[in-house]
Amino acid sequence: MPLLTAAAVRKQIQSGTPEPIYLILGEDEVEKSGLAAEFAELVDEGLRAFNVERIHAGDLTTGDRLADGVAGIVAAARTLPMMVPRRVVTVLQVETLLAPKRESEAATRALAQFEELIARPEPQTTLVLVATSVDKRGRMFKLLQKHAVVVECGALEDLADAERWVRTRVAAAGAAIEPAAARLVAQRAGVDVKRLRADVDRLLLYTLGQKQIAIDDVREVVGPAALQDDWAMTNAIEAGQAAEALRQLALMFDSGAPAEKILGQLGWLVRTKFPALAAADVRPAIEALFRTDLDLKRSAGDPRVLIERLIVELCAGKRVAARRW
User: Fold this and answer.
1) CATH topology of 3-152 equal to that of 159-221?
2) How far is CA 15 from CA 11, 39, 109, in A?
3) Tens-place pLDDT, residues 197-222
4) In terms of CATH architecture, what is 3-152?
5) In angstroms, rounded to a whole number, what is the distance separating the alpha carbons of residues 75 and 70?
């Protein structure tokens, strides 16, 4: 089964076309909890009490407790939905089931039952397994890789993901934030989860006692967008991601980087990476570099616009290369 992002899973939920089993992994407890809770939207709100079940597996370690717990999970998953086409069963802290100690016959039988459920899931049930970390070399994880959709939380794809992350984090703290304020936090931090977390923590402290975080609060507390990686622009060009490369270029200009320095970085990329990355494009890339250099020296246009045009040319063809540094 595929490895999907949280954003892709949300699209499946919204379209009402979920897979039978999901394994949600990662250290970001808020994001994992928020995504797992969204599966309830597959069931009409008035019927969720009968068709949505949450089970905590943290205490299911060995012996009879493990046997009883797994039996409960299997029974919940095999129960037919009531008045709706689908049930949702969410199992939290499932890592205890993925690498347990087989200390008794009861535990061994229970794990065999759990493996059977994974191998033959109930078609009318969506089983959502949530874990912090698992042994990816283990038998159970390999079985889940074959039969379940694996979702690793903590990596954000775009600004929409970042904005959703901000709203979820603020809500988990029992606060509220204006949509425009959440959008501005995301725009200034980008998809850097570490910076997003720090910015939101400062906002929550700054607005302690307020009913809602406003956009003016964000302007007071959250600094302007900053360049997080000096080589993010060139990495994006290697991947053919023109939009991301242009965003990183804007951050470089906003942070005061001179056009000549940026052009030098692009020259390094063409000289050292393009021969292996896109050999047929080396000559036109060099010609584009020389043209841009000449235009900058004779002030033939706005430096930012000139380099933006160059980046679009370098990204043409959507080159994809393995990052080796």
Assistant:
1) no
2) 6, 12, 37
3) 888 988 998 998 888 999 999 988 88
4) 3-Layer(aba) Sandwich (3.40)
5) 8
